[in-house]
Design a protein that fits this description.
Blueprint lengths: L5 H22 L8 H11 L5 H12 L8 H25 L3 E2 L2 E2 L1 H8 L6 H27 L5 H27 L7 H27 L4 H28 L2 H4 L5 H5 L4 H9 L2 H10 L7 H14 L1 H22 L4 H16 L3
Antiparallel strand pairs: 1-2
Helix pairs in contact: 1-2, 1-4, 2-6, 3-4, 3-8, 3-16, 4-6, 4-8, 5-6, 7-8, 8-9, 8-12, 9-15, 9-16, 12-14, 12-15, 13-14, 15-16
């Protein structure tokens, strides 16, 4: 096997998404609502994203012996993961009441603006309701892509089993995210959320799905998990740092949302754990307050840095990166796949968005 061209993999997935969404838009032309919902989903999917989950799915297929350009069925399963991701993000933005995603207004904000503006409570309710429907539609489209991928019945059953597990896991992760008591969460609790919301959903299950498409045995799936879980946790830990200290022009979303929401991240858990009394009082005063102003957020960042929490998170990222690399080195998979996964892992650790 020659070196893998990840850009070509992304382009194959994008073509699949463009063809599928285009067909759905054409089917909706006769509807009286002007295809607003379909356009919102198609626009969200085409409006950015790393395509990480689809790429990992295709790499899982190569890891299990896939050869040549990924066939139509593999591309459709990979693209279905991106549509599922759209569902998860659109609903997540509603739950967090976020303003921006991928440097654009979130779906619920965009629809509220069309219905009278985000200062109107009625328009905001409409925007949130429509965004929930848009997320539901993205989930339906994801199912349709899987169902029409052209897989043999036995293989499709294996795929659905993994997809069902992935969905249960991310719902569990989101539930923990919503119900865990904000910045006072323990490091252990925050890591569990990271594992279910990101490590399993973003890295482990996509790799395993691709491997199943190539008929991988259980042993290979376990080998891929040994790499995927620490790699996915390092990805989420980097996300936690970027969510507070990142550059909005690069990340495409505000760096105050996690602080206003009091999101139970490892970063905030470590800060509370190592803060002195005065620092903890200020963190409790500001974190989780919806009206947190930018200058107050800067003060919180200063306190977070003073507790040493960002450095401790960086150390945890390096530790998990090293575990993922060691698992890759021990894995019996083609060298080009190992190289591509190592590149993705390094990028996940060093990324700025």
């Amino acid at each position: 096997m020659d070196d893998l061209d990840l850009r070509a993999v992304r382009e194959s997935v994008d073509r699949t998404l463009e063809e599928f969404c285009g067909a759905r838009l054409r089917q909706a032309r006769a509807r009286p609502d002007g295809m607003e919902l379909e356009r919102a989903v198609a626009g969200f999917v085409s409006g950015g994203g790393k395509r990480l989950r689809p790429v990992l799915c295709v790499l899982g297929w190569y890891a299990a012996g896939g050869q040549g350009p990924p066939p139509r069925a593999v591309c459709r399963v990979a693209a279905a993961l991106e549509l599922f991701h759209a569902f998860a993000l659109i609903h997540d933005d509603v739950m967090d009441d976020s303003d921006r995603r991928r440097d654009h207004p979130t779906v619920h904000r965009a629809f509220a603006a069309r219905r009278g503006g985000n200062d109107s409570s009625a328009a905001r309710r409409v925007g949130m309701g429509v965004a929930i429907l848009a997320g539901d539609l993205a989930l339906t489209w994801s199912d349709d892509l899987l169902r029409t991928a052209g897989l043999p019945a036995e293989r499709l059953a294996e795929v659905w089993e993994l997809v069902s597990a992935m969905r249960d896991e991310i719902v569990h992760g989101q539930f923990l995210d919503v119900t865990t008591p904000g910045p006072r969460a323990s490091v252990k609790a925050a890591l569990e959320i990271a594992r279910y919301k990101t490590a399993k959903y973003t890295f482990e299950r996509p790799l395993q799905l691709g491997a199943v498409l190539a008929g991988a045995p259980q042993r290979l799936r376990e080998t891929l998990s040994a790499y995927a879980l620490p790699a996915g946790e390092s990805f989420q830990l980097r996300d936690d740092l970027l969510g507070v200290f990142g550059d909005p022009s690069t990340t495409g979303k505000p760096v105050v949302d996690d602080l206003r929401e009091g999101t139970p991240t490892v970063l905030l858990a470590l800060a509370f754990e190592h803060a002195d009394g005065a620092q903890r009082a200020l963190l409790e005063q500001h974190i989780g307050r919806p009206g947190l102003e930018d200058d107050e957020a800067d003060r919180v960042r200063h306190i977070l840095a003073a507790t040493g929490a960002p450095g401790r998170v960086e150390a945890m990222i390096r530790e998990r990166h090293d575990l993922a690399v060691k698992a890759l080195e021990a894995a019996v998979i083609p060298l080009p796949v190992r190289t591509a996964l190592r590149t993705l892992t390094d990028t996940a650790v060093r990324r700025a968005s």
